[in-house]
């Protein structure tokens, strides 16, 4: 196969001169490259010839191409790129000389949309950003709203405990997907099925509590949308032993698997210096040995009262990040058990801030026909109190006003620091909501992780970042 | 309450007091806008009055959209948007330490570049001039007493009514060494000259954030190694996060009734 017709001769980059001469001497035999009949329509476009040629010529071509760098476009539709990520790789044989990530294919303008909805409606938008960590997006956003409102210390303890429980379960779910898809990208489909199966246990609990498996809009400014009932906790606790067995199964499948270790050990190396320079956080940073975790260093939602460890590894490679994620799952289970115990003890306490000018007027409840507004609330606003109806109407359609100013709230998402920069102009809608998504930030390190390695290791390196394009592109 | 007569725009509506103002006169705050937001190279720093809030915009009316006449009587509402003004020492928490260290590490840049130090909602904000941004940022990273190793990116904010400072670039920094300290730098530039120096060579992690802010707001980060669009297609026209850029959307019809697109609806704002 030959390549010709590109008008800019420098396009072929570092192709060896002898190769170019060889191609010139052979001649492309292209019938259309110089033809006048296409001069108008093609107009300096590249002409590709994928014609035959005998075996000798193919061998010579391969010898020529072997001496040159080729540019390979990987994605955006590729099963190993973790979503619609485009990687432009410059290859020297099998070695990656340059890697560049192209993003934006999943940009949906969520931040812009949030400026046209009330502060409460914002949760339904931001939950869709990184769709594997919806609770974290909501929690970070709500913490920023609460900071602007100045009600951070008025959030009921039970609401914070519910947030912690949901976030830690969500962390397990996100890590399971990371391991599952990462395994699938290496060809280990069993990891994938086990990972998704175990995550489903967590999603069933989310569905019971919030009504939705994903995109919950469950964490709301001032608290959470709905209380966690004892039967929900019973359901979760009945699933936990099976979840533990499943996680152990993944550990047994992965950790001492010689193929897996061969693919991941010493692959995707990024030192502490590199992490600091690029501002990388999350498991990648902890795989260099630095125990930086916002849950410990800058606690929120009462994390300082929970007993857990920050997991680190020293090897700074893809294997270390897998081990960190597995260990963090166990730590999350530890936190979740403490949260369950607290929620059992605090049953019946409020889950929404006491200020009725901020708190959503109705809690949801489960009726015979599914989930909806609580019947008591409907009875009150429709049959008993006109003022309640007005209050409900004003709060739901207009929303609450947030004093002008700006705030930045950051939490430790499964992928690193998830920050929200929220600006209010005193109205009922965010003037500007910006999400510093850890996937977006950490994906900048893809070049540093991939360059100099083999092309097959690009997959491993990108998988060890665990980027979710919904969060990258927002 | 019966229906009100013709609109009386000159009448001060009662809901003006709902914003967090400290009973300051609008005429004073107008002057302050000129003082604090006009970025001129080499101009003497005029310290804003401590504690006086800064007017960043005016909100008029009560409802968004302009379809049909506003018969609510709130059409003449004009509420200044008051951001917290400069704070007075002691700032509290670690903020004094950070400000002192920055002043010691980059004295000239601090004197010429820091317009205001604002402590609000437990966060430290330095409003700085773009000419001194790089010197201040380099000190933030390199000085041992500051050591803000990690950048949390730059975010843009568009305030169309702030003449001479329409576009803001807001940086957040974290210091892991000093126990997750945070500081925010707020840099502004006029719409006619939307240039802010790039800090990618100091903080390589800011690369994509600057590209995103350029893409979304049109702020040109001078010195960026490859300032191209990152989220929108390369041939896109306009910068979507600016306030004069429409959200878009189509009216939805259902059972004969039509609901306008979200940015055209008559709704509260």
Automatic annotation (TrEMBL), chain A:
List the subcellular locations.
Cell membrane
Tell me the organism: Ornithinimicrobium tianjinense
Which membrane topology describes this protein?
Peripheral membrane protein
Which major enzyme category is it? translocase
Annotated keywords: Cell membrane, Membrane, NAD, Quinone, Translocase, Transport
NCBIfam families per the UniProt record, alphabetical: NuoD (TIGR01962), PRK06075.1 (NF004739)
> Self-association or partners: how does it assemble?
NDH-1 is composed of 14 different subunits. Subunits NuoB, C, D, E, F, and G constitute the peripheral sector of the complex.
Mention any one GO cellular component term assigned to this protein in its UniProt record.
Answer: plasma membrane
Report the function annotation for this chain.
Answer: NDH-1 shuttles electrons from NADH, via FMN and iron-sulfur (Fe-S) centers, to quinones in the respiratory chain. The immediate electron acceptor for the enzyme in this species is believed to be a menaquinone. Couples the redox reaction to proton translocation (for every two electrons transferred, four hydrogen ions are translocated across the cytoplasmic membrane), and thus conserves the redox energy in a proton gradient.
Kindly provide the name given to this protein in its UniProt entry.
NADH-quinone oxidoreductase subunit D
Domain (NADH-quinone oxidoreductase subunit D) spans: 186-474
- Main location class: membrane
InterPro entries, A to Z: NADH_Q_OxRdtase_suD (IPR001135), NADH_UbQ_OxRdtase_49kDa_CS (IPR014029), NDH1_su_D/H (IPR022885), NiFe-Hase_large (IPR029014)
Family designation: Belongs to the complex I 49 kDa subunit family.
Reaction equation(s) it catalyzes: a quinone + NADH + 5 H(+)(in) = a quinol + NAD(+) + 4 H(+)(out)
List, alphabetically, the Pfam families matched: Complex1_49kDa
Domain of life, source organism: Bacteria
Keyword Nucleotidyltransferase, does the record have it? Answer: no
State which Enzyme Commission number(s) the record gives: 7.1.1.-
Q: Which GO terms describe its molecular function?
A: NAD binding; NADH dehydrogenase (quinone) (non-electrogenic) activity; quinone binding
From TrEMBL, chain B:
Q: Which PANTHER family match?
A: NADH DEHYDROGENASE [UBIQUINONE] IRON-SULFUR PROTEIN 3, MITOCHONDRIAL, NADH DEHYDROGENASE UBIQUINONE IRON-SULFUR PROTEIN 3
Single GO cellular component annotation?
A: plasma membrane
Q: Which family does it belong to?
A: Belongs to the complex I 30 kDa subunit family.
Organism domain of life: Bacteria
User: What organism, scientifically named, is this protein from?
Assistant: Ornithinimicrobium tianjinense
Q: Note whether Cell membrane occurs among the keywords.
A: yes
Per the UniProt entry, the Enzyme Commission number(s) are 7.1.1.-
Kindly give the InterPro entries that the UniProt entry links to this protein: NADH_DH_suC (IPR010218), NADH_quin_OxRdtase_su_C/D-like (IPR037232), NADH_UbQ_OxRdtase_30kDa_su (IPR001268)
In this chain the NADH:ubiquinone oxidoreductase 30kDa subunit domain maps to 127-249
**Which GO-annotated molecular functions does the record name?**
NADH dehydrogenase (quinone) (non-electrogenic) activity; NADH dehydrogenase (ubiquinone) activity; quinone binding
Top EC category: translocase
| Reaction(s) this enzyme catalyzes, per UniProt | a quinone + NADH + 5 H(+)(in) = a quinol + NAD(+) + 4 H(+)(out)
**Can you say what this protein is called?**
NADH-quinone oxidoreductase subunit C
Q: Region (Disordered) spans which residues?
A: 1-36
Q: What does the protein in this record do?
A: NDH-1 shuttles electrons from NADH, via FMN and iron-sulfur (Fe-S) centers, to quinones in the respiratory chain. The immediate electron acceptor for the enzyme in this species is believed to be a menaquinone. Couples the redox reaction to proton translocation (for every two electrons transferred, four hydrogen ions are translocated across the cytoplasmic membrane), and thus conserves the redox energy in a proton gradient.
Query: What membrane topology is annotated for this entry?
Result: Peripheral membrane protein
Subunit structure as annotated in this protein's UniProt entry: NDH-1 is composed of 14 different subunits. Subunits NuoB, C, D, E, F, and G constitute the peripheral sector of the complex.
Query: Keyword Transport, does the record have it?
Result: yes
């Amino acid at each position: 196969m030959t390549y010709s017709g590109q008008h800019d001769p420098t396009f072929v980059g570092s192709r060896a001169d002898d190769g170019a001469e060889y191609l010139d001497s052979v001649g492309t035999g292209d019938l259309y490259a110089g033809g006048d009949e296409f001069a108008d329509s093609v107009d300096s476009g590249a002409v590709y010839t994928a014609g035959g040629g005998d075996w000798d010529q193919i061998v010579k071509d391969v010898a020529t191409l072997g001496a040159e760098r080729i540019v390979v476009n990987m994605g955006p539709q590729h099963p190993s790129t973790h979503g619609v990520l485009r990687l432009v790789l410059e290859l020297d044989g099998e070695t990656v000389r340059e890697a560049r990530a192209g993003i934006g294919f999943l940009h949906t303008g969520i931040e812009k949309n949030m400026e046209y909805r009330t502060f409460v409606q914002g949760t339904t938008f931001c939950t869709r950003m990184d769709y594997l960590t919806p609770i974290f997006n909501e929690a970070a956003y709500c913490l920023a709203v609460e900071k602007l409102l100045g009600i951070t210390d008025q959030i009921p303890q039970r609401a914070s405990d519910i947030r912690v429980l949901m976030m830690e379960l969500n962390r397990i779910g996100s890590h399971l997907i990371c391991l599952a898809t990462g395994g699938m990208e290496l060809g280990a489909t069993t990891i994938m099925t086990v990972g998704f199966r175990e995550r489903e246990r967590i999603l069933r609990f989310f569905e019971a509590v919030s009504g939705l498996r994903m995109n919950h809009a469950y964490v709301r400014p001032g608290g959470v949308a709905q209380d966690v009932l004892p039967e929900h906790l019973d359901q979760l606790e009945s699933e936990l032993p099976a979840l533990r067995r499943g996680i152990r199964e993944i550990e047994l499948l992965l950790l001492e698997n010689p193929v897996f270790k061969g693919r991941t050990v010493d692959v995707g190396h990024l030192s502490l210096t590199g992490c600091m320079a690029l501002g990388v956080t999350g498991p990648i940073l902890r795989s260099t040995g630095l125990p930086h975790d916002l849950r410990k260093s800058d606690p929120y939602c009462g994390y300082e009262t929970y007993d857990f460890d920050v997991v680190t590894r020293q090897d700074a490679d893809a294997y270390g990040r897998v081990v960190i994620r597995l260990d963090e799952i166990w730590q999350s289970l530890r936190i979740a058990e403490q949260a369950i115990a607290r929620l059992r003890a605090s049953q019946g306490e409020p889950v929404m801030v006491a200020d009725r000018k901020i708190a959503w007027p109705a809690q949801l409840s489960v009726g015979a026909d599914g989930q909806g507004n609580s019947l008591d609330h409907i009875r009150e606003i429709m049959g008993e109190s006109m003022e309640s109806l007005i209050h409900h109407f004003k709060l739901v359609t207009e929303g609450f006003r947030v004093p002008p100013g700006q705030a930045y709230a950051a939490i430790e998402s499964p992928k690193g620091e998830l920050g929200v920069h929220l600006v209010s102009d005193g109205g009922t809608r965010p003037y500007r909501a910006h999400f510093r998504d850890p996937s977006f930030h950490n994906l900048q390190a893809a070049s540093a992780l991939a360059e100099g390695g083999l092309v097959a290791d690009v997959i491993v390196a990108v998988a060890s970042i665990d980027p979710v394009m919904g969060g990258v592109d927002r | 309450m019966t229906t009100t007569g013709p609109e009386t725009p000159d009448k001060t509506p009662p809901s003006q007091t709902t914003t967090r103002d400290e009973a300051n006169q609008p005429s004073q705050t107008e002057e302050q806008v000129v003082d604090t937001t006009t970025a001129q190279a080499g101009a003497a720093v005029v310290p804003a009055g401590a504690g006086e809030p800064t007017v960043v915009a005016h909100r008029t009316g009560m409802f968004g959209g302009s379809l049909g006449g506003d018969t609510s009587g709130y059409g003449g509402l004009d509420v200044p948007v008051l951001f917290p003004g400069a704070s007075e020492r002691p700032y509290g928490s670690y903020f004094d330490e950070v400000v002192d260290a920055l002043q010691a590490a980059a004295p000239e840049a601090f004197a010429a570049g820091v317009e205001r130090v604002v402590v609000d909602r437990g966060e430290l904000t330095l409003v700085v001039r773009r000419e001194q941004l790089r010197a201040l940022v380099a000190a933030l990273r390199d000085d041992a007493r500051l050591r803000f190793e990690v950048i949390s990116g730059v975010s843009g904010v568009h305030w169309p009514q702030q003449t001479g400072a329409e576009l803001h670039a807001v940086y957040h920094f974290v210091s892991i060494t000093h126990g997750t300290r945070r500081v925010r730098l707020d840099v502004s530039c006029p719409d006619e000259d939307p240039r802010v120096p790039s800090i990618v060579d100091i903080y390589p992690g800011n690369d994509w954030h600057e590209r995103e802010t350029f893409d979304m707001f049109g702020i040109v980060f001078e010195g960026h190694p490859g300032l191209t669009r990152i989220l929108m297609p390369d041939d896109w026209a306009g910068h979507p996060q600016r306030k004069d850029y429409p959200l878009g959307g189509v009216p939805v019809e259902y059972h004969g009734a039509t609901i306008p697109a979200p940015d055209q609806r008559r709704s509260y704002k």
